[in-house]
Amino acid sequence: MYRYDEYDQAIVDARVDEFRDQCRRRLAGELSEDQFKPLRLMNGLYLQLHAYMLRVAVPYGTLNARQMRMLAHVARTYDRGYGHFTTRQNIQYNWIKLEDAADILAELATVEMHAIQTSGNCIRNISSDQFAGAAADEVTDPRPWAELLRQWSTFHPEFTYLPRKFKIAVIAADEDRAAMRLHDIGLQLVERDGALGARVYVGGGMGRTPMIAPLIRDFVGADELMSYLEACLRVYNRYGRRDNIYKARIKILLHEIGADEYRRQVEEEFLAVKQLGIDPPAAELARISEMFASPPFDPAAPDSVDRTDPDFALWLDQNVKPHKQSGYAIVNISLKPIGGIPGDASAEQIDVMADLAERYSADELRVTHAQNIVLPHVRKADLYPVWQQLGEAGLAEANLDLISDIIACPGLDYCALANARSIPLAQKIGQRFAGAGRQRDLGELKLKISGCINACGHHHAGHIGILGVDKKGTENYQLLLGGSGAEDVSLGRITGPGFDEDGVVDAIERVTDTYLQVREQGERFVDTYRRVGMQPFKEAIYG
Amino acid sequence: MRLVTGNDLPTGDVVWWAGGGWSRHIEEAVDAGDRAEAIAREEEAARRVNVPYVIEATATPDGPRPAHIKDRIRALGPTVRTDLTLKPADPNAGSWVI
Amino acid sequence: MSDNVLRYRDDEAHDEPAVTLDAFVAGQTNAGAVRLEAGDDARALLPHIDRLALVEVSFPSFRDGRGYSSARILREAGYAGELRAAGDVLVDQIPHMRRCGFDSFAPESAIDGAMLERSLARYPTPYQRAADAKVPVWKLRHG
């Protein structure tokens, strides 16, 4: 885990002071809402339907127990006893008072946390692989690189008023667990001739015009990565569209000028920028990497697990993933109980997860872009007590990557931008497919719901996606099939006319029934869809 | 009827124009008629409310009912957490929204 | 020159009115002062930076961040004259503008001097190298 030094701490403390001053000016009437809005957004404070909402950064999704307990404390003290984990690996609180916002940030700063750049037209929280440091398939731990990027992008003087928000993801394995190519910049760390560097994808994104990022550079060495990114961002800052908010993301610039022309401009800029000495020395990456060294694993940890308890075995098969170290495992805690609110956790549950991390997972937790929590380093011998304690806290739903493990944005229940509610739909779908046998028979099926075109619920990337729209004042839902945010990245296609809430649940059932009829041995839902195409599903839905 | 609504500046709470000031309860909202836009402007300029806007609503025996579902959700609270709405004891509060 | 220009330079202010980039590049003028609109390409000035005393960069809206890149491009190429941010320039933005190389400001609305001083002093050690003299944190860590 990264630990702040005096410089990091001073920067975060200064930010609290600055934001306190900005809030004071707003409350005193010195700033209009128009002037205050970009300032508060730059610090993750939104005005939503019922209150202010504060989004707290969880850099690359990594937390320790002390930080997790602070999140519970904030939920209890300043909110209504819960928080919502997001697809950007952050947490947001729905019931914040402007008067409390600076105090919350001051409390967060005591555990090396902040809300810097969790909104606004700037470089947002760097996201990464939730299994980083634990997965066997990574070439290196991507988090030190993500931390280097966090520092580079924090209060970047040139890129704080970009045409639009800017999201960067870093992974280091061929399996993509972070939807890397659906980011403005996606970096895949690779090894070449014994040196580590990044493969750079630019111009992906969801929103109203979803695009998969093309490869812009095959390799940038660690020693030039910041210069290269600076060049990527500068071309965007100068030439990204500012006349239309819906066309302002970098994906539109790439689409309009073409990947080749964008690449040419970046290379030209890069030639100039790399002479300026803006890349930190290798010693800085080394300093950060040391802090992410593996915890001291016990090489003698037993590798076998007692599967006598059938419920435990179910959970083991569904929610526990292999670890790079024998005798250890990666535990996924589903925040998707049947009938619950995807991504929500109560202060008590957050505390339980913190305690478990401290006792059983080398003091580490991760937030996933699928709105779940990970205990990355659990001894296999401890899995049973971990499962039991999760169960007592209502956190042992065995549904990872199944149809009820739904990504859903807050939707119209909370969000000022939404056109339709997402959560009640997630609840109904979960209940419809609740039987463990039924879900498991359907296998991996990623269902993602957005309550508006902004696509915070990643509906374009769902094997099944749902988009809520406003149809003459009533909620209506469009159905999409065939998307994926993983290494087999693809964008979903709309099936046809939309449905009301119950209608879309029925339609999903007809889709899954069709899949069960036509699937071949070993095919996931999305594989079948890719093989047979839209037609059989369409016929089943609209008949 | 025409209502003026916004969020309270320091707390962010949803508020409704109730004639002489702002109320957290839509039952106390009054028809602002032709004055609605002017009230919104004046109150925002005086920094007494955050981003006020004007909505259409229907008068009912239980109080005004906003035309759009978004404002009905604002008036009540999240439909998925009725315990956190303004009517936590009313199990049917959510049905008013739909 | 307007009275409310904030300058962070010791030299004499340059009074000559700025000409447009088009007029300047067309060579119709011997002007030593140019005004760049937000969408103008600062690189067009690079062959001439030695004879420029003032470049004024326009900020039509505080949300339009193109001028930050214009400033850095000029400074990175060695421009040493006055670099002025003009227009919708807010107190909370000036520290970033200073880092990008601006050393004078002509904001549309008056700026509270005390607040600006606090703001400029707030972050002594930035994370990244930019066009100012501030030493980035990584340099302080590793020398």
UniProtKB/TrEMBL annotation, chain A:
It comes from Sphingomonas citri. Pfam families: NIR_SIR, NIR_SIR_ferr. Residues 52-109, 341-392 form the Nitrite/Sulfite reductase ferredoxin-like domain. The keyword Metal-binding applies. InterPro entries: NIR_SIR_4Fe-4S, NiRdtase/SiRdtase_haem-b_fer, Nit/Sulf_reduc_fer-like_dom_sf, NO2/SO3_Rdtase_4Fe4S_dom, NO2/SO3_Rdtase_4Fe4S_sf. This is Nitrite/sulfite reductase. SUPFAM superfamilies: Nitrite and sulphite reductase 4Fe-4S domain-like, Nitrite/Sulfite reductase N-terminal domain-like. Residues 119-270, 404-541 form the Nitrite/sulphite reductase 4Fe-4S domain. The keyword Metal-binding applies. Gene3D superfamilies: Sulfite Reductase Hemoprotein, domain 1, Sulfite Reductase Hemoprotein,Domain 2. Keywords: 4Fe-4S, Heme, Iron, Iron-sulfur, Metal-binding, Oxidoreductase.
From TrEMBL, chain B:
InterPro entries: DUF2849. This is DUF2849 domain-containing protein. It comes from Sphingomonas citri.
Automatic annotation (TrEMBL), chain C:
InterPro entries: UCP030820. Pfam families: DUF934. This is DUF934 domain-containing protein.
